Amino acid sequence: MAEIRNYTMNFGPQHPAAHGVLRLVLELDGETVMRADPHIGLLHRGTEKLIESKPFNQSIGFMDRLDYVSMMCNEHAYVRAIEQLLGIEAPIRAQYIRTMFDEITRIGNHMLWIGSSGLDLGAMTMFIYAFREREMTMDMYEAVSGARMHANYYRPGGVYRDLPDSVPLYKESPWTKGKNLKRKNEWREGSLLDFIEAFASDFPSKVDEYETLLTDNRIWKQRTVGIGVVSPERAQQLGFTGPMLRGSGVEWDLRKKQPYAMYHEMDFDIPVGINGDCYDRYLVRIEEMRQSAKIILQCVEWLRANPGHVMLKNFKVIPPTREEMKDDMEALIHHFKLFTEGYSVPKGEVYAAVEGPKGEFGCYVVSDGANKPFRVHMRAPGFAHLSSMGELVKGHMLADVVAIMGTLDIVFGEVDR
Amino acid sequence: MFDTVINLLETGFAWIQSNYIIWTLLKIVVITLPLITAVAFYTYFERKVIGAMQIRIGPNRVGPLGLIQPFADVFKLLLKELILPAKANRFLFVLAPVITLAPAFAAWAVIPFNDFLVLADVDAGLLYILALTSLGVYGVIIAGWASNSKYAFLGAMRSAAQSVSYEISMGLSLVGVLILAGTLNLREIVLAQQGGVFDWYWLPLLPLFVIYMISGLAETNRAPFDVAEGESEIVAGFHVEYSGAAFSVFFLAEYANMILISGLTAILFAGGWLSPFEGVPVLGDTFLAEGSILWFLAKTVVFMFMFLWYRATFPRYRYDQIMRLGWKVFIPITLVWVMFAAVLTVFGIVVKGA
Predict the structure, then answer these.
(1) Half-sphere exposure in the Cβ direction for B143 (13 Å, CA)
(2) Contact status, residue B167 vs residue B219, Cβ threshold 8 Å
(3) Other C-beta atoms lying within 10 Å of the C-beta of residue A50
């Protein structure tokens, strides 16, 4: 008798569905996965160690590059941690802007998720549809910070700048002209708030479009219903957060349970799944996008009515404006000190978390009283989700590995750090 | 002077026609060359159509409207290095693409473009088609095995299982056509459908028509049944190790097969070259009401378009779900409908061969 052995296969690190650099060693019996062993660390950049060598305010940029799909949410966690250590609080307008951009980020992240997870399951039109809208969230980032992805917009004590009065317009080109150009610029004629409002009020109809393609699609359902089921108890044991946990039916959202920024003022619902399979997680994320649009509209309304400061006027922590700096000796000294030495932060340790699009993104900062953090640790939701990979895919088929990996919504920037 | 040239040409033409081999070879070239061109432009058509469905532009850089793009692709592929994996079986590795391509082209021998334009008017035409379309899968299996790659092997296994199970439902839906037409000759099958849109076999054999098209998708490994390639699962499946010219041959075969299935659907279920306006009084004497090769091509293009439409719309099936669909849904339905078709003929509701 010939010996029958299982088939060991390397899934990644270069694989169209590996979402970056995941290396998964699969043990296959036919097409059934007997064991899945995720190997991480291929995108390790030593972020946590690098942060220890820089003044506090210079590390915000690192946060963008952790989960490079939900940039501002990561910044938010880190900035909140510093604010708590310093004992300051951002002006209320800045808090509203942060709330709004957290939700814009959530939409952007879920767009990428629905696109790539659709593509993984072969629904390639979904990808392009989703990126059409994601492009606009990128434009909002750009309008407010100058960068499409790595915004570096939130600062301890507020946000870098107030919302601009204009949005960059599309220029005429052989491919965008006439009616097409007019349609593309239609929402961008006014201020950024007008643009965001137009986007957010139209967005639910776009979500309807996605749902038409997927929600009731027989193939989509066959591919996702009953795949990768996690019971609520097990989800909690595995340290799931965000849509992964809510998909299993646990009603847990930091925005409601431990409100930060302006979430306590907002009217929104937390969608919860029932079965804890891929389909429920899909539905949860879809509904989250609708709720995000709702929150954004509430923020826009408040922001329109209440102009004001977006930064604290505390020159020990917040740099003076360039105008003041050129004019005032004291401001110049503050500027010089802040951009060379930074500021010292009182001794202590703090954990600040936000409900990122993927789950609870937390920042644990230990300060020894110097101008640089003694230690920073990031609690990345993706890491906990990925650790469950072996358990989730066991007994499923190879094609389901892809489906499950899609709903985990992993970004390796945060897992490998 | 002029007369002598004409005379020369006429004698030359008569000689060619009398020489069986050269005449046949000439006919083959006349079918194959447009077919290859059609494949090239089908890739362009696909990218444009799917681009439009996805709010993109599609190729527009090479030549006016990007029309030269397929040729640019062909030359790029032909000029690329052909990599033979170190532990591959060299002979089979090279043979596999040829085995895939040959039947896709050979099947066209019996396809009637109109009443008289057919390379070989074989009486067992349908059997010949069945035999050749089943051959193609061997190329895929051999490619997967000869590559000595795990992904390619998985793709080959999937493809083998899938093609075998869909061959059955495909064959059974052809049996329905057989029963109604009472002949295996493709030309006569078309002639049996004469009389306008509602006399074509798509109506009495509607379930078989739908199943034939879906099986055709599965048979050509197209989305949503493209598990043998399974881009996001097993990278490129059976042809993951192929590059350059060998890869382009697989590509050519896939698209030639799609055109073949579309053409067959047009012949078997949509009246081939027959006009849909046959017997409509207003158009009675215009060329629109006459059967011509144009109608055949138009119908084929419509079915070709559907291949692309499905690809842009549906997510991919899972391998075992495809099997379940084939065995538990399609085969029972086709079996029942074949019986039904038999009843239709026996009781003269649909007159056999008329």
Answers:
(1) 32
(2) yes
(3) 13
**What's the rounded Cα separation, in Å, for the pair B156 and A330?**
74
Both tokens assigned to B61: 């850089």
The CA–CA distances, whole Å, from B190 to A328, B112, B117, B216, B291 equal 92, 9, 13, 19, 11
Amino acid identity of residue B172, one-letter, is: L
Give phi and psi for A80, each to the nearest 5: -65, -40
Tokens of A164: 């601009």
pLDDT of B279 higher than 80 = no
In this structure, what DSSP letter does residue B120 have?
Answer: -
Is the separation of the CB atoms in A402 and B233 below 8 Å? yes
Rounded to an integer, what is the distance from CA A321 to the centroid of its chain? Answer: 29
Structure tokens at A260: 């930060």
DSSP-assigned states of every residue in A235-278: HHHTT--HHHHHHTT----HHHHS--TTGGG--------SS-SH
If you ran DSSP here, which 8-state letter would residue B326 be given? Answer: I
The residue of chain A nearest to residue B227, with distances taken between CA atoms, is: A399
Task: Provide the pLDDT confidence category of residue B280 given band limits of 50, 70 and 90.
Answer: low
Compute the distance between CA of residue A106 and CA of residue A101 in angstroms, rounded to an integer: 8
Burial degree of B134 (CB within 10 A; 0-12, 13-18, 19+):
middle
The closest of A387, A378, A416, A402 to A73, measured between CA atoms, is A378
Q: State ipTM.
A: 0.80
pTM for the model: 0.85
Torsion of CA A152, A157, A161, A163, to 10 degrees: 100
| Beta strands at A32-39 and A23-29: parallel, antiparallel or unpaired | antiparallel
Written as one letter, the residue type at B70 is P
Distances (CA, A) of B274 to A360, B200, B205, B267: 65, 9, 18, 9
Average pLDDT over residues A211-223: 87
Contact A222 B318 (CB under 8 A): yes
Q: Nearest Cβ partner of B232 from A122, A129, A400?
A: A122
Q: Would you call A197 an interface residue with chain B, using a CB distance cutoff of 8 Å?
A: no
**Burial category of B79 from C-beta neighbours within 10 Å (exposed 0-12, middle 13-18, buried 19 and up):** exposed
How many whole angstroms separate alpha carbon A266 and alpha carbon A210?
A: 26
Which of A123, A124, A223 is nearest residue B318 as measured by Cβ atoms? A223
Three-class DSSP category at B230: coil
Distance CA B84, CA B67 (A): 32
Cβ atoms < 10 Å from Cβ of A229: 16
CB of A316 closer than 8 Å to CB of A164: no
Burial class (CB in 10 A: 0-12, 13-18, 19+), B91: exposed
CB contact under 8 A, A220 and B315: yes
Closest listed residue to residue A405, CA positions, set B233, B22, B250: B233
3-state secondary structure of B296: helix
* Residue from B65, B316, B329 whose CB has the most chain A CBs within 10 Å, to mutate: B316
User: If you count DSSP H runs as helices and E runs as strands, how many of each does chain B have, helices first?
Assistant: 13, 0
| In contact, A47 and A126? CB cutoff 8 Å | no
For A47-61, what is each residue's pLDDT tens digit? Answer: 889 999 888 888 888
Q: What DSSP state is assigned to residue A311?
A: B
Integer distance in angstroms from the first to the last C-alpha of chain A?
A: 49
A88-102 residues labelled b (16+ CB within 10 A) or e (exposed): bebbbbbbbbbbbbb
Largest separation between any pair of C-alpha atoms in chain B: 72
**For residue A174, which phi and psi values (nearest 5 degrees)?**
-55, -25
Which tens digit of pLDDT belongs to each residue from A75-119? Answer: 999 999 999 988 888 899 999 999 999 999 999 999 999 988 888
Cβ–Cβ under 8 Å, residues A100 and A197: no
Are B109 and B119 within 8 A, CB to CB? Answer: yes
Q: Which of B54, B151, B320 is nearest residue A397 as measured by Cβ atoms?
A: B320
Q: Cα angle vertex B46, ends B41, B49, to 5°?
A: 120
